[in-house]
């Protein structure tokens, strides 16, 4: 029998519904759920490739103690003993959890309950600190609670959508598709993108404001002041529902138009146009994401935006509002359970004695954390200086994702006791675990997640648990039981936990707290299994169809009013003579964070296969670096070596690097080794987007490219980057050392079986080396080396791993590194769903396809998930412009 399960995508905060189908033979396929109100059937490239990432390669299937397989009992006993001993000897402040917005709400709830109610410490923080905490802090300052007022539909209903520090096209692709479709239907709708670089999102923008890094506060303070001088303030709303207007205006009013121009570096026409659009459009939605949050002025940026929406009363009504886009699938669920070190549970506050008492009574717990715990950066500092004796890391990879990552790694290595719960055995963090616990992954685990618009959806299991893997909540509850807290953690399954969480949200609430899902308290298992996606609030006894907040005020400060916050632009330029460039870090379309899952898909890895530094052509010229050569990035903190990508999308003086590559996939591309641990003073969120660096050309003697059926090992190169390819692996390399015996090198690195001899050549004069190793008619490995970046048709060569090579001419074509006339080279992948490459698209444009739609008809490209449509449009436009010129 075929099995169909409705579940939710485990990647971004859009929270798309997915239907997973498992055939009788166990083959899994996924498609978008047409009924799910987040995506109505759409999926992006990452969601579409989910079935390619659930194999058991690299999974940890049994608990391990010090690298040796152990029983669950031994592993859990040890964890309980070590945590109990640390608490007994050094107090509850000596233990810590570092968890993740990728946990399910049920896992998260149990972790938070155990730490705050039973250990009596608030030393639980989460990777959401690196992600959403400035939004949380900004919301709490303005609204008195961490409330996202709007819903996705508002993006479709607005007449002006502002995307501030959000690369929506790549990071929330389905929401971007919804926005793009709405704009196509209603061409009068305007989109403004605020981002120092020209991203694919800018493709649908009527106005792209390429501001200087971190000058958003000046931009929005100037807007606030402009709204006042142009009589655009909604006096009634402000009088009835807010306080602090005069104080905030006293500060913003001093930010002149000229000062905004000077700070942001924008042309005055553009700034005028932006202010005009905002002032004259009633239905405005401002979405913001990491370009706003991940800054030393992140919280102020958030409040500068909220001030403008409060002043105009544009909040909580259809088509209006500020909208913090959450990154992770369950960033919002984590906030609901109070997963941050400075929150309690169910949107209650740790600083509030009544809240503490209420939560403790509800839990019947022996203790309750009295004060906020350590925020991520401080938490790892406390690990480093020995204050934290026992640390449990769950569903996050801090050795890659935390700023000052080498110091974080050293801290973890020095910590007396480290537990890591993950799905992979080998990650940059897991390799330092004393106890490594195998967790259930997506498709195996079961629970709920909350997306950016407060919509709670079920993730449902459709696969059997692999090996001895267990759910994260179960691991926590078992440790709780062993520490004597069995009664409070006697859950049979996620339904029990969700029910308790829902009941706590309603406990003594009566409208005083925004988060209330009392309608879902006390569910039966069957009812829990059947939960359809719903938005909160849903208090007991009433069904809310309207879930927006604040159209008529009703904020959560004690006077029920919102606060304007006086925010002042600060110095933002971090460069210095020895570090004259600015480093900006972020995401690419087809990888997810530290690549533990998306890195498994050859299709996803073909879009961008190497870590890179994107820089402006004139900067490249000054440094003396050519395209595809290597650059070395240095800060006071550390260094990285990556490929140079030279484009006009970058502003001069600014370099963009992706966050994804780590020690499992590249020699030296873990970008957070370069990023210092500078944080926002209110939220503690690291400033990951504005780092002073130097850049220089990295000198090498040889560049190389290779592919192989086996995973390469022991590649001792100055630079290497590994990526999954259909039927094997691709490896890009560069060597600073002089030549060696390359045939032996290949034998070692690719584990080439005895008896397989290379065909190919070594050219002493040019320095070129080319080898292909055939195992019968199958290509086993190929290796190309040159003194400059290797000129081979990479995507074509990669397809040869899966091709039969019966005749010699084909084999020689591989050595040549380019196809014969009868074997087309599709070029770099643009559409990963259908594997369509740049050369094919260029061919079609030359053949008369002059629009994205025409390319779609001819090649299918862009017709599945649509994530590449912006890139296709750029290619078509570029071609036509070149032809016209
Ligand atoms: N493909 C993909 N999608 C993802 C993820 C992923 O790993 N891969 N991760 C998910 C997660 S957890 C998150 S948090 C989201 C993040 O989603 P986004 O925030 O959209 O992604 P980023 O690339 O981190 O950064 C957004 C933009 O901020 C810009 N920026 C930098 N400095 C400034 C500034 O000073 N002001 C302004 N206005 N903009 C600036 C950057 O140039 C960048 O284009 O993505 C989610 N979606
Ligand atoms: N410089 C810079 N640094 C950044 C950012 C940036 O823009 N710039 N962005 C920051 C942001 S917004 C974020 S969200 C973080 C993300 O950074 P991380 O959270 O470190 O990244 P992930 O790769 O998502 O880590 C998830 C881990 O959990 C494992 N895992 C997957 N499923 C499960 C499960 O069900 N249970 C358990 N126990 N484990 C599981 C995965 O294998 C992986 O090791 O990075 C932050 N770091
Ligand atoms: S937009 Fe893509 S990554 Fe995000 S939830 Fe939807 S399918 Fe998943
Ligand atoms: Mo994030």
From TrEMBL:
Stretches assigned to the 4Fe-4S Mo/W bis-MGD-type domain: 2-58
Cofactor: Mo-bis(molybdopterin guanine dinucleotide); [4Fe-4S] cluster
Alphabetical keyword list: 4Fe-4S, Iron, Iron-sulfur, Metal-binding, Molybdenum, Nitrate assimilation, Oxidoreductase
PROSITE patterns in UniProt: 4FE4S_MOW_BIS_MGD, MOLYBDOPTERIN_PROK_1
SUPFAM superfamilies, A to Z: ADC-like, Formate dehydrogenase/DMSO reductase, domains 1-3
KW Iron-sulfur (keyword) present: yes
Keyword match Membrane: no
PANTHER family in alphabetical order: NADPH-FE(3+) OXIDOREDUCTASE SUBUNIT ALPHA, RESPIRATORY NITRATE REDUCTASE
Record-stated family: Belongs to the prokaryotic molybdopterin-containing oxidoreductase family. NasA/NapA/NarB subfamily.
Name of the featured protein: Assimilatory nitrate reductase catalytic subunit
């Amino acid at each position: 029998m075929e099995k169909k399960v409705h579940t939710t995508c485990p990647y971004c905060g859009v929270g798309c519904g997915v239907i997973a189908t498992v055939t009788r033979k166990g083959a899994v396929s996924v498609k978008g759920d047409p009924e799910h109100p987040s995506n109505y059937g759409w999926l992006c490239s990452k969601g579409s490739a989910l079935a390619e990432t659930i194999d058991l390669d690299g999974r940890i299937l049994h608990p391990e103690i010090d690298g040796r397989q152990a029983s669950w009992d031994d592993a859990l006993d040890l964890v309980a003993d070590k945590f109990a001993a640390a608490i007994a000897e050094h107090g509850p402040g000596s233990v810590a959890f570092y968890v993740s917005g990728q946990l399910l709400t049920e896992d998260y709830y149990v972790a938070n309950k155990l730490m705050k109610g039973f250990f009596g410490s608030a030393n639980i923080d989460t990777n959401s600190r690196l992600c959403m905490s400035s939004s949380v802090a900004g919301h709490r300052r303005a609204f008195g609670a961490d409330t996202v007022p709007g819903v996705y539909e508002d993006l479709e209903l607005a007449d002006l959508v502002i995307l501030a520090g959000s690369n929506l096209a790549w990071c929330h692709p389905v929401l971007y598709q919804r926005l793009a479709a709405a704009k196509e239907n209603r061409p009068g709708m305007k989109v403004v993108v605020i981002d120092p670089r020209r991203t694919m999102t800018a493709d649908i923008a009527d106005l792209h404001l390429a501001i200087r890094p971190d000058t958003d506060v000046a931009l929005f303070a100037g807007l606030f002041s402009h709204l006042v001088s142009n009589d655009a303030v909604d006096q009634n709303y402000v009088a009835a529902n807010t306080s602090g207007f005069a104080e905030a205006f006293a500060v913003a009013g001093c930010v002149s138009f000229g000062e905004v121009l000077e700070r942001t570096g924008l042309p005055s026409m553009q700034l005028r146009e932006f202010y005009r659009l905002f002032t004259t459009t009633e239905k405005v939605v401002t979405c913001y994401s990491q370009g706003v949050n991940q800054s030393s002025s992140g919280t102020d940026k958030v409040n500068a935006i909220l001030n403008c929406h409060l002043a105009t009363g544009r909040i909580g009504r259809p088509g209006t509002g500020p909208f913090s886009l959450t990154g992770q699938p369950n960033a919002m669920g984590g906030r609901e359970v109070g997963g941050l070190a400075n929150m309690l549970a169910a949107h209650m506050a740790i600083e509030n004695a009544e809240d503490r008492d209420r939560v403790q009574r509800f839990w019947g717990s022996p203790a309750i954390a009295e004060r906020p715990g350590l925020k991520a950066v401080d938490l790892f500092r406390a690990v480093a200086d020995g204050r934290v004796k026992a640390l449990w890391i769950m569903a996050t990879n801090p050795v890659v994702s935390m700023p000052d990552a080498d110091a974080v790694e050293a801290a973890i290595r020095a910590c007396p006791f480290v537990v890591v719960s993950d799905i992979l055995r080998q990650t940059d963090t897991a390799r330092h675990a004393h106890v490594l616990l195998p967790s259930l992954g997506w498709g195996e685990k079961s629970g709920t997640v909350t997306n950016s618009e407060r919509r709670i959806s079920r993730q449902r299991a459709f696969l059997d648990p692999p090996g001895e893997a267990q759910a994260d909540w179960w691991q926590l509850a078992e440790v709780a039981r062993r520490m004597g807290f069995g009664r409070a953690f006697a859950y049979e399954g996620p339904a029990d936990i969700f029910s308790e969480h829902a009941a706590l949200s309603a406990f003594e609430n009566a409208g005083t707290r925004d988060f209330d899902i009392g309608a879902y308290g006390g569910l039966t298992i069957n009812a829990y299994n059947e939960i359809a996606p719903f938005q909160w609030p849903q208090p007991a006894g009433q069904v809310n169809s309207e879930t927006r907040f604040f159209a008529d005020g009703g904020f959560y400060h004690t006077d029920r009013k919102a606060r304007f916050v006086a925010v002042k632009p600060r110095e933002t330029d971090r460069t210095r003579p020895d570090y004259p460039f600015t480093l900006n870090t972020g995401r690419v379309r087809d990888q997810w964070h530290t690549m533990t899952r998306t890195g498994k898909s050859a299709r996803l890895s073909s879009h961008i296969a190497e870590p890179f530094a994107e820089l402006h052509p004139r900067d490249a010229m000054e440094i003396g670096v050519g395209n595809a050569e290597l650059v070395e990035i240095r800060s006071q903190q550390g260094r990285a070596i990556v490929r140079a990508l030279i484009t006009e999308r970058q502003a001069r003086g600014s370099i963009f690097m992706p966050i994804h590559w780590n020690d499992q996939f590249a020699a030296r591309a873990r970008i957070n080794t370069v990023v210092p641990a500078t944080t926002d003073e209110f939220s503690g969120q690291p400033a990951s987007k504005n780092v002073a660096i130097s850049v220089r050309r990295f000198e090498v003697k040889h560049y190389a490219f290779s592919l192989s059926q086996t995973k390469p090992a022991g590649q001792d190169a100055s630079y290497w980057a590994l990526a999954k390819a259909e039927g094997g692996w691709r490896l890009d390399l560069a060597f600073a050392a002089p030549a060696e015996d390359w045939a032996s090198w290949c034998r070692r690195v690719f584990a080439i079986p005895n008896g397989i001899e290379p065909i190919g050549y070594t050219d002493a004069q040019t320095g070129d080396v080319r080898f292909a190793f055939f195992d019968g008619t199958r290509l086993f490995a190929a290796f190309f080396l040159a003194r400059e970046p290797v000129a081979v048709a990479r995507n074509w060569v990669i397809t040869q791993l899966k091709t039969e090579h019966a005749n010699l001419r084909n084999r020689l074509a591989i050595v040549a590194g380019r196809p014969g006339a009868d074997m087309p080279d599709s070029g770099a992948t643009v559409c990963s769903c259908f594997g369509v490459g740049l050369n094919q698209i260029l061919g079609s444009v030359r053949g008369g396809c002059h629009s994205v739609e025409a390319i779609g008809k001819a090649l299918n490209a862009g017709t599945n998930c649509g994530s590449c449509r912006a890139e296709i449009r750029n290619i078509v436009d570029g071609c036509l412009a070149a032809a016209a010129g």
